[in-house]
Amino acid sequence: MNDQAPILTADHLYCGYGKTPVLKNISFEAQNGEIISIIGPNGSGKTTLLKTLCGVLKPRQGNIFIKGEEIGKLSRSRISRTVARVSQTIDMPPMTVSAYVLMGRLPYFKRYQFFERKADVDKVKETLGLLGIGHLAEKSMDAISGGQQQLAAIARALVQEPDLLLLDEPTSHLDITHQAVILNQIRRLNRKFNLSVIMVLHDLNLASEYAHRLILLNGKAGEVFCTGSPEHVITKEYIETVYKTPVLVDQHPRSGKPFILLDG
Ligand SMILES: Nc1ncnc2c1ncn2[C@@H]1O[C@H](COP(=O)(O)OP(=O)(O)OP(=O)(O)O)[C@@H](O)[C@H]1O
User: Fold this and answer.
1) How many angstroms separate the CA atoms of 44 and 96, rounded?
2) For the segment 181-229, what is each residue's pLDDT rounded down to a tens digit?
3) Of 123, 126, 101, 105, residue with least CA distance to 114
4) Residue limits of the ABC transporter domain (predicted)?
5) Closest atom of ligand 1 to CA, residue 219
6) What's the rounded Cα separation, in Å, for the pair 159 and 62?
7) Of 191, 242, 238, 192, whose CA–CA distance to 212 is shortest?
8) Model pTM?
9) Is residue 218 in contact with ligand 1, taking CB distance under 6 Å?
10) Does domain 8-262 match CATH 3.40.50.300?
């Protein structure tokens, strides 16, 4: 892998499930240290794109490069040490939160290593603490709330120590306190460790506030409608065209970022 290359390059991707592709001709580069949010109406293909970007779903055409290397030529563990994904639906194995989060360390296990090392356990503890769920460590995954499961899934991705984090609606089950915990933590990791992030967000105001760049999918056409800074993408004209809903666009009083309200 080449550290100077963009962390991820999507090159003319056509992706989907059946005969007709859900998404057509998607090309973009995610630079190192960039936070990108994929936005768009329900069913526009946000999850499909995220799954394709990490190699879970094979593109029907086009290619993906991670740090300049074709994803198909990389081993699963090499990909896992570089890219971590948190999906929208979280599997709930009957295990404790700490055992679940520890699974994120598997890509670092050596051949014939069957047990975690102290460094792995420390990493898990530290990450649970950072996300405010240290007290849940010994609880079973199926005995905690949906929001807490979401935090545990994010912790599992973070202990993978990825260079690129892919998040599918990371705040969907979270109250505003935990939305702030997650997104501020992601911003902190981005600033401190240059973590690159691509996240699907439904909340356009959170996308506007936390992402450097937005990719707005056009539901019907299966294409990118436009991409750019929040100021470029979150305009009355673009949002009303894509979402077919009247909106008001103002500025956040503190950050100055575009701020959106439904208009009737
Ligand atoms: N496993 C699947 N098999 C077949 N079609 C699928 C599958 N998953 C999704 N689709 C279809 O692909 C299209 C895009 O779905 P996708 O979940 O990527 O959209 P989305 O933008 O993430 O939606 P939402 O905002 O509702 O989560 C939809 O028409 C959906 O029905």
Assistant:
1) 35
2) 889 989 998 998 899 999 999 999 999 999 999 999 998 789 999 999 9
3) 105
4) 8-246
5) 21
6) 31
7) 191
8) 0.92
9) no
10) yes
